[in-house]
Amino acid sequence: MTTQSDHRQNLAGAAWMIFAMAAFAVEDALVKAVSDILPVGQILTMFGLGGALLFAAIAYRQGDALLTRDVVSLPMRLRVLFEITGRLFYVLALALIPLSTATVILQATPLVVVASAAVIFGERVGWRRWTAIGLGLGGVLIILRPGTEGFSPLSMLAVIGMLGFAGRDLASRAAPKSLSTAVLGLYGFLALAAAGLLFSLWQGEAFRIPGAGAALLLTGTIVVGIGAYSGLMKAMRTGDVSAVTPFRYTRLLFGLALGILLFNETLTVAMLLGSSLIVMSGLFILWRGRGKMLKSASTLEAETASPRRL
Known about the structure:
Elements: H1 4-34, H2 40-62, H3 74-96, H4 99-106, H5 109-120, H6 127-144, H7 155-174, H8 181-203, H9 212-236, H10 241-244, H11 250-263, H12 269-305
Helix pairs in contact: 1-3, 1-9, 1-11, 2-8, 2-9, 3-7, 3-8, 4-7, 4-11, 5-6, 5-7, 6-12
């Protein structure tokens, strides 16, 4: 039975989630803006180092050990690899394709996570959720329009980035429980800095001394990105996860709005149809997952309350 206190907690969690998604959308817009001034590799490196320093300070304050055997476990090594893939290709997508397109494609991440969890972790996914996953991924294809004149190969950068983020989320689930959120954040941002350095070496483009405008944009990216991550952590720890998580999709609205207002992007029928399929599929999967959790909880409560036969 939901109490008034639970309701207030859910509202607070939803507010934190909306704040986090708005901040992530602003971060994407800032990255896109600064990519016109500085090389992508430099942006990744400086953003990664800024975030790593902050999370190192948080971990130190919490008394977390930064160097343990768990840090180099297989799930952590995979997490770093997926983090590099996701961050690098998504930032390239932000620099080279419309912000609205990259934002919409990113929303397919939960669909890929659910499908992969069924294959890798053996989680039970019924035919209804498999159908929703198929429809959502079909929405991605509608946006990409492969085989048509409107298809842009650069859009695949966002797809690869989305797959990288999905892999990172799955690896985070398999990561040792001894590692705190701050430690995971530290190594995630260090991986981002490493990705920037490697990309800079491959591209052969030297770092530039940022001017006042570029420095301001880059600083804003780091501050807003950290605020977004903190807001997300706060949201997931306030209220019920099933009540808070659907508000992740507000990032889509903020991303589309910023793309239109700041970069003069236009929304096509394919974009609207594809994004609708992705969001509806994601919300359906969340709804089905919540129903299964409530049913399991009710069954457990009934079994606990009923007298056992001797």
